[in-house]
Amino acid sequence: xxxxxxxxxxxxxxxxxxxxxxxxxxxxxxxxxxxxxxxxxxxxxxxxxxxxxxxxxxxxxxxxxxxxxxxxxxxxxxxxxxxxxxxxxxxxxxxxxxxxxxxxxxxxxxxxxxxxxxxxxxxxxxxxxxxxxxxxxxxxxxxxxxxxxxxxxxxxxxxxxxxxxxxxxxxxxxxxxxxxxxxxxxxxxxxxxxxxxxxxxxxxxxxxxxxxxxxxxxxxxxxxxxxxxxxxxxxxxxxxxxxxxxxxxxxxxxxxxxxxxxxxxxxxxxxxxxxxxxxxxxxxx
Length: 285
Ligand SMILES: NC(=O)c1ccc[n+]([C@@H]2O[C@H](COP(=O)([O-])OP(=O)(O)OC[C@H]3O[C@@H](n4cnc5c(N)ncnc54)[C@H](OP(=O)(O)O)[C@@H]3O)[C@@H](O)[C@H]2O)c1
Known about the structure:
Blueprint: E1 5-9, H1 14-25, E2 29-34, E3 47-50, H2 56-70, E4 75-78, E5 84-85, H3 93-121, E6 124-129, H4 142-162, E7 167-174, E8 186-187, H5 198-213, H6 218-229, E9 237-240, H7 243-254, H8 257-267
Parallel strand pairs: 1-2, 1-4, 2-3, 4-6, 5-8, 6-7, 7-9
Helix pairs in contact: 1-6, 2-3, 3-4
């Protein structure tokens, strides 16, 4: 049988890298896209191409080149993403636009390019990376949480529309994983030393960094996605998270809103140790 062709975005680091590698090792023909691939970075078991999902011309160039290399994809995995931590009051509007442009519109751009190719084939699988934050909100991740809620809603609509063409849509909803990227999380330029949110922000982002640093194994996530994608029928949602994060989603839906807010609010007020994000890098700048 011919190798299944996968195009995957955001595969130069973190969960995208682990997923691309696992897919390659499972015998998929993987075309991996990310901005840094254009600067010579590569990933084993895959062919890599430069791709900026926020730039229409870059997306078009990626599609043209990927078509020459592999032909039309059987599977699209939309993993590219970014996170800017900040208070809803103080985010710069262009920071929110950048997060939405990468995490939501970046996925939409890729979906719109591959759908005609998949409709021609009469089949295809589209995998959109969401997050537990696509299902509930936590403090200081307002822009990211908005982008992930957007892709949740869009994917539900998409699945209904493309089913008659034999195309399936799956949302991946990871909890915290040790992607190694925590140290690079950007802080909003609006979060100055005099911010009224400063103390809550330092504690809250410390909890976020701790949870990611003690999160699940990204190799296991890549393996799970690769195994699921070998099936003829794929689930609508693949939630890959520790018990407490899965429980949070259940409580979010079951409890009265004030009850859930009280639990999640107090969780992010309790420090878990020194905050590594205070000495942050600036990967996306
Ligand atoms: N890590 C977690 O715990 C976690 C939890 C829930 C959901 N997720 C989701 O999983 C995905 C990966 O997250 P991660 O934490 O593993 O992140 P990460 O290590 O920061 O990786 C982000 C990837 O996206 C790429 N990227 C960023 N902007 C891009 C752009 N404009 N065009 C193309 N590629 C771009 C980056 O590559 P270049 O810089 O080379 O472009 C990189 O490969 C994201 O969608 C994230 O929301 C992660």
